[in-house]
Amino acid sequence: MKVTVIGLGAMGMGMALSALRGGHETTGFDIAEAARTRFTEAGGKTAASPAEAVAEAEVVFCVVVNAAQMESVLFGEGGVAAALRPGTVFAACPTVDPAVARATAARIEEAGALYLDAPISGGAVKAAEGKLTIMASGSAAAFEAAQPALGSVAETVFRLGDTAGPGSAMKMINQLLAGVHIAAAAEAMALAARSGLDLKQTYEVITKAAGNSWMFENRVPHIIEGDYSPRSAVEIFVKDLGIVLGAGHAERFPLPLSAAAHQLYLAAAGAGHGREDDSAVIKVYQKLSGISLPGDRA
What PROSITE patterns does the record point to (predicted)? Predict the structure, then answer.
């Protein structure tokens, strides 16, 4: 197939390379020249603009950060909506409010293209391996047209409905759990440090005990190594838990754990850690309690 990936960040680059490995004629676009160069050196094609990138595409994966960026890609100056051919599938991968997914789908489908509500999960490593999980919803025609491309970037594709919205709703639930679990992991490791426990040993014990979670197992090594290079940044959960809380507000549904975790990410971002790895939420506890953490400067 002719596949385009818009947004060659950690996730988008992995998806583009996976599509390329899957035998698809793959074009990438990113505003960063270094990302475009990296993809070209890997054997892919790049374009000078998003509209040029999608001109011949059968499937377009939009792998940007948020709804505002997707809106700009589609309907901003030089946006791709007008350049999509009839029948082209626009697979929207960012985490957005389900209402945004529904509204965007209506605009895309009115123009004759197909919309797939297709948020992703798995992280940069799974993206690079072509083993993402995609929580998708959309028409049967969109699923059928996109299937070969989906198969090259994802290990599991859940079909959650025949309209846009359920895919984004499911990703919202995933992000609620992920955000709360990271916050809980940070709190637990901060208390371990305050209690005088060895953090590496704490990790070894908890990952073999009932208190473990996927996020604990994945993020706590960043704390132990004192490495807060962003795999997924604090600001992502400021945004995503904001979406969760907005949905709860609209439904008059209480979300006390999500709200508490959101405040922790806001505090971390406000303290200057917004672009660091989301495990950097532990630094809020460090500022409050004075605990020592690996990587502290002497």
Answer: 3_HYDROXYISOBUT_DH
- Positions in the chain whose pLDDT score sits under 70: 297-298
Q: Which of 2, 45, 126, 171 is the catalytic position?
A: 171
Determine the Cα–Cα distance for residues 278 and 231; give it in Å rounded to an integer.
Answer: 8
Is 279 within 8 Å of 223 (Cβ atoms)? Answer: yes
Q: What domains are there in the chain, each with its CATH number? A: 2-163 (3.40.50.720), 169-289 (1.10.1040.10)
The backbone region for 138, taken as left when phi is positive above 0, alpha when psi lies in -120 to 50, beta otherwise, is left
Q: Which helix (H) or strand (E) holds 159?
A: strand 154-159
Q: What are phi and psi of 290, to 5 degrees?
A: 80, 15
Encode pLDDT of 27-58 as tens digits.
999 999 999 999 999 999 999 999 999 999 99
Q: What is the pTM of this model?
A: 0.94
Active site residue 126: no
Per-residue confidence (pLDDT) for residue 295, from 0 to 100: 87
Q: What is the token pair recorded at 64? A: 């940007």
Where b means 16+ CB within 10 Å and e means fewer, 227-244 reads ebebbbbbbbbbbbbebb
Beta bridge partners of 27: 4, 45
Q: Are strands 114-117 and 120-121 parallel, antiparallel or unpaired?
A: unpaired
Relative to beta strand 114-117, strand 45-46 is: unpaired
Give strand pairing partners of 89: 59, 114
pLDDT, position 209:
98
Helix (H) or strand (E) holding 189: helix 166-194
- Residue 213 Rama label (left phi>0; alpha psi -120 to 50; beta): beta
